[in-house]
Design goal:
Blueprint lengths: L2 E5 L3 E5 L13 E5 L1 H11 L3 E5 L1 E2 L3 H12 L8 E2 L6 E5 L8 E5 L15 H4 L3 E7 L7 H16 L3 E5 L9 H11 L5 E4 L3 H6 L15 H15 L3 E9 L4 E9 L4 E3 L3 E4 L6 H14 L4 H15 L11 H8 L10
Parallel strand pairs: 1-4, 1-9, 2-7, 5-6, 9-10, 10-11, 11-12
Antiparallel strand pairs: 2-3, 7-8, 12-13, 13-14, 13-15
């Protein structure tokens, strides 16, 4: 099996049951998730040797988070233990024209207090073929930004392909902070992944004639974004997910992939959303699976979009679908009919 490593934070997610608002909540549903952990779980589900690297507290809550990873087949050998707490985020599910809301409670979480001695990157990247991180991890503070840089240098020293999901989070840092840190990290990246807003928020590269709020996405504008990312940072491939938000409950979903010579546009899926958190991560996991397995770029793109489409029907952060289920959707079986 091909070895893939991801690095970041896993958190406890607390959400009111169903579509209740925070003010109505008398209990919370508990799941775990986080950008890079979500990707590792997708890849483990697809049969790859996926490892998630982080730091978690030495108590039962930290162990519970680790157990969710193990349950899904993710390697936890490189997880460091220590620190005081697991990060938490609260999620209120949106519906119709009411958007979802997220409140973070992750200050001083274990990963934000990690040090260089917590991770042996040479051992971690031994026999690895791919490394994935997101823009969320370096946004947690100077320590995690420096650790991410150290990991990237080690990955390149071991000849590992690197992907990043830009994942701009305005509640974690400003565009100016993001551009300063991410520009330094991008020189190690081979595959850049982002949504329709990330490149604008982080690097000031805006798609012309697009209005995300109004749901109007101009494909030619995003082709220009991909070309500018290649020109500025020398990445080999750029993938951009395109979400047309008709409402919180109904989205159209597609993506572009640029490999410096050709542009590819995926088919578009009209989705009724059960849980949209982790949608971008499931796309990244699908794309990595396709590319590392040698699929042509267009086929890898279609696999990634289909995988992410299915994730929107799964409660929780994790994309708990199989390769066969994704391939069936890629081949056109989108009926949702009961399988007996």
């Amino acid at each position: 099996m091909k070895k893939v490593v991801t690095f970041g934070e896993i958190m406890m997610r607390l959400s009111p049951p169903g579509y209740k608002r925070f003010s109505q909540a008398e209990s919370f549903d508990v799941v775990y998730g986080g950008g890079e952990a979500n990707v590792a779980i997708s890849l483990a589900n697809y049969g790859l040797d996926a490892y998630f690297v982080t730091k978690l507290p030495c108590h039962e809550i930290g162990e519970s988070a680790i157990n969710t990873l193990r349950k899904c087949g993710v390697g936890t050998d490189y997880i460091s233990r220590g620190g005081e707490r697991l990060g938490i985020y609260f999620l209120e599910h949106g519906a119709s024209q009411r958007p979802s809301k997220v409140v973070y409670d992750r200050t001083n979480s274990s990963i934000s207090q990690a040090t260089y001695s917590d991770f042996d990157w040479d051992e971690i990247f031994r026999n690895a073929e791919w490394f994935h991180f997101t823009g969320i991890t370096p946004a947690l503070g100077d320590r995690t930004a420096d650790l991410t840089l150290e990991a990237l240098k080690a990955a390149k020293a071991h000849g590992v392909t690197v992907s990043v999901d830009l994942n701009y989070r305005q509640k974690l840092w400003t565009p100016e902070q993001a551009q300063r840190v991410m520009s330094r990290l991008m020189e190690y990246v081979d595959v850049s992944i982002g949504n329709e807003e990330d490149a604008e928020k982080i690097f000031g590269i805006k798609a012309t004639e697009s209005n995300v709020t109004a749901g109007h996405l101009n494909e030619d504008g995003y082709r220009e974004v991909a070309e500018k990312l290649v020109e500025r940072f020398g990445v080999k491939k750029v993938a951009i997910t395109l979400r047309e938000s008709l409402s919180a409950s109904e989205n159209k979903w597609s993506a572009l992939l640029y490999n410096t010579t050709h542009f590819y546009r995926s088919k578009t899926y009209h989705m009724h959303i059960v849980d949209r958190v982790g949608g971008g991560d499931s796309f990244a996991g699908g794309l990595i699976y396709g590319l590392i397995g040698g699929k042509p770029d267009k086929e890898a793109l279609e696999f990634a979009v289909a995988a992410s489409c299915l994730k929107h029907s799964v409660f929780g952060d994790y994309n708990l679908v199989s390769v066969d289920e994704v391939e069936r959707l890629v081949q056109g079986d989108a009926s949702g009919r009961v399988q007996r």
